Amino acid sequence: MHSRNLLSARYDFPQLLASSPELAPFVTRAAHGDESIDFADPAAVKALNKALLKQFYGVQFWDIPAGYLCPPIPGRADYIHYAADLLAASNGGEVPRGKSVHVLDIGVGANCVYPIVGTREYNWRFVGADIDPVAIRAAKHMVAANPGLAGRIDFRLQNHVEDIFEGIVKPREEFDLTVSNPPFHASAEEAAASNLRKARNLGHAQSMEPSPNFGGKNTELWYEGGEEAFVRRMVEQSVPLATRVLWFTSLISKKETLPSAYHFLKQANAVDVKTINMSQGQKVSRIVAWTFQDEAQQQQWRERRWKK
Fold it and tell me: Which portions of this protein are annotated as coiled-coil regions (predicted)?
């Protein structure tokens, strides 16, 4: 995991329990002697996330509606740190920090983890966009309940499912970075089958229903045409924002999507494309990043926005 990731070490359950005693009912001693939780139990995963966000990011209140995606915090934090390195490469090797850095999270979800980590680690400002009004309301409520986050994260509802940036990015508005964790299944059936396989891998009965920590709502898990179709639309719709966004990025969960993503970016005439590999345990994913600005334009961007 990334060297700056606060969650790169094994979970220190005694420390977590000291600050979040509500985690205690879910902690058990595994066969190898270490303390752990049942990661197939949505209530346990939710309690662990609350404890991690409180311990490492100072989030006193965090909650999501029943059935919404409850993501692993370490992997989300890794994305933000690698994205910070991407900005650093356009800034002489130094990560730009502070409110001058404006980040757009496409598909922020009710969990709002990317903006939480980016705000607490780098003091960035965020816009979180989503097509689900329930997710937007839940994220707004959570942020308002945390003084350290209030006023730092704006939320915008996307009213048109076919649009990604249109209707979200305001006229003349600029973003230094966009992040996204696209839905990577092509249908609800595919998503359900994947969730069931994960449950079985954790040793649960074959007949069990997929649990919310592996599930999430349809808009969080699947998109017609799958990850490839979503990335294609994102690339195509990024072109009109070529001078108003420095770096576009997207998580790519399936390596099979990469050749298509590169093809779409070549068609869009992206000036620079980077692939950043990430791993968490046995899970391997990658970030694809692209910009339409050359080195001279990136230098002008840096001087205008980050050197004030």
Answer: none
